[in-house]
């Protein structure tokens, strides 16, 4: 055996010993999670998934990490370990905006790990309905994109739903121009994608396919599926859809902005407890009078609260009433935030707290 062969053998023996220790430790951890489940069961607590605790575990792992693996990489590994441990307690079901292969599914896996059961729904409304009906434990819906702005349909669904936001997750969005093996690449005359994705690639399409017809469909995955039977069509979609429908990439990362990302919300019937770094989302109705928004935001300014987003939507109750969706840092259990909420409620015609939840970790 050469010297390098001998060295390799020694190193692999060391790795085997480490793996065996890792396995013992992971099994020990899984046993602990099972015991946690028993405690929850004894207390009659049906929420096995604890968003605030999971966020704390991931943050502390990232803080303690000394390398050589980077913080995000170790957090991703622990995300999967926790996902498997939670599945031992209770396999959780998550409804997402489908079909299979959408970015919302990718966001769900990023947030809950691979052990959660992801159930595709055809529309955002259906995601809300399934969660409310108790057919699944949680739902995940897109809410805003860094290039295209807010997803109005999601905000409108909150107006009619009693569901709570119990988490958020952000996903980098990369789009590719995809074709099937039957596509005549030099004859592409139609491009399918979701309206948001077409918009996110507008400049690229204007330069490379100025005369191709752009057809908006329900989802990117739907676009990927459609082109299978059309030799003159291409689709814009992400990696998951490309893999799932076995499509080839004609051009990669064609989004106009390199920092293109989408924020998703986790919805459920559960209220997340404080994790130490939290956000709160509220919905406020105001009569349309001069200075309404200014008046509404004053308590935040006085309380020195960091606003992270303010959106306006026309209300569905009166023609000239407005609904403001406001996100800010802090948890409603914090007395300072509770005080601000009291002051906002005094000025608004209606205030609905959509939820306090851990700030996205990954
Ligand atoms: C173990 C628990 O239950 C679940 C699993 C967790 C884990 O594996 O660390 C963390 C939070 C919960 O989603 C717990 O509540 O502590």
TrEMBL record:
Residues annotated as transmembrane: none
GO-annotated molecular function: prephenate dehydratase activity
InterPro entries in UniProt: ACT-like_dom_sf, ACT_dom, Chor_mutase/pphenate_deHydtase, Chorismate_II_sf, CM_dom_sf, CM_II_prokaryot, G/b/e-P-prot_chorismate_mutase, Preph_deHydtase
EC number: 4.2.1.51, 5.4.99.5
Protein name stated in the entry: Bifunctional chorismate mutase/prephenate dehydratase
Role summary: Catalyzes the Claisen rearrangement of chorismate to prephenate and the decarboxylation/dehydration of prephenate to phenylpyruvate.
SUPFAM superfamilies xrefs: ACT-like (SSF55021), Chorismate mutase II (SSF48600), Periplasmic binding protein-like II (SSF53850)
Main subcellular localisation: cytoplasm
Pfam families in UniProt: ACT, CM_2, PDT
Superkingdom of origin organism: Bacteria
Pathway given in the UniProt record: Amino-acid biosynthesis; L-phenylalanine biosynthesis; phenylpyruvate from prephenate: step 1/1; Metabolic intermediate biosynthesis; prephenate biosynthesis; prephenate from chorismate: step 1/1
Domain Prephenate dehydratase, first and last residues per copy: 93-269
């Amino acid at each position: 055996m050469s010297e390098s062969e001998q060295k390799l053998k020694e190193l692999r023996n060391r790795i085997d010993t480490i793996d065996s220790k890792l396995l013992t430790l992971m099994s020990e951890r899984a046993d602990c999670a099972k015991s946690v489940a028993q405690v929850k069961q004894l207390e009659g607590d049906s929420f096995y998934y604890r968003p605030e605790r999971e966020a704390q575990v991931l943050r502390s792992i990232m803080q303690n990490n000394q390398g050589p693996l980077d913080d995000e990489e170790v957090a991703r590994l622990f995300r999967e370990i926790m996902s498997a441990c939670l599945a031992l307690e209770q396999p959780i079901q998550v409804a997402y905006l489908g079909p299979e292969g959408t970015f919302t599914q990718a966001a769900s896996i990023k947030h809950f790990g691979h052990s959660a059961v992801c159930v595709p729904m055809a529309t955002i409304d259906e995601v809300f309905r399934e969660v409310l009906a108790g057919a699944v434990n949680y739902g995940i819906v897109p809410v805003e994109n860094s290039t295209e702005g807010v997803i109005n349909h999601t905000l409108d669904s909150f107006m009619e739903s009693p569901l709570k936001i119990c988490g958020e997750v952000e996903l980098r969005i990369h789009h590719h121009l995809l074709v099937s093996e039957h596509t005549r690449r030099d004859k592409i005359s139609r491009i399918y994608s979701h309206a948001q994705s077409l918009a996110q690639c507008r400049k690229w399409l204007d330069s490379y396919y100025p005369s191709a017809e752009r057809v908006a469909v329900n989802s990117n995955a739907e676009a990927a599926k459609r082109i299978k039977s059309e030799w003159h069509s291409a689709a814009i979609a992400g990696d998951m859809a490309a893999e799932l429908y076995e499509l080839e990439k004609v051009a990669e990362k064609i989004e106009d902005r390199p920092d293109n990302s989408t924020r998703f919300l986790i919805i459920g019937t559960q209220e997340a407890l404080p994790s130490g770094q939290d956000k709160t989302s509220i919905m406020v109705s105001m009569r349309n009078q001069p200075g309404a928004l200014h008046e509404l935001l004053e308590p935040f300014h006085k309380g020195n609260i960091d606003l992270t987003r303010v959106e306006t939507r026309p209300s569905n109750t009166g023609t000239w009433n407005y609904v403001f969706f406001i996100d800010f840092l802090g948890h409603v259990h914090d007395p300072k935030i509770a005080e601000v909420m009291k002051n906002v409620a005094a000025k608004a015609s209606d205030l609905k707290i959509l939820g306090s939840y851990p700030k996205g970790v990954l």
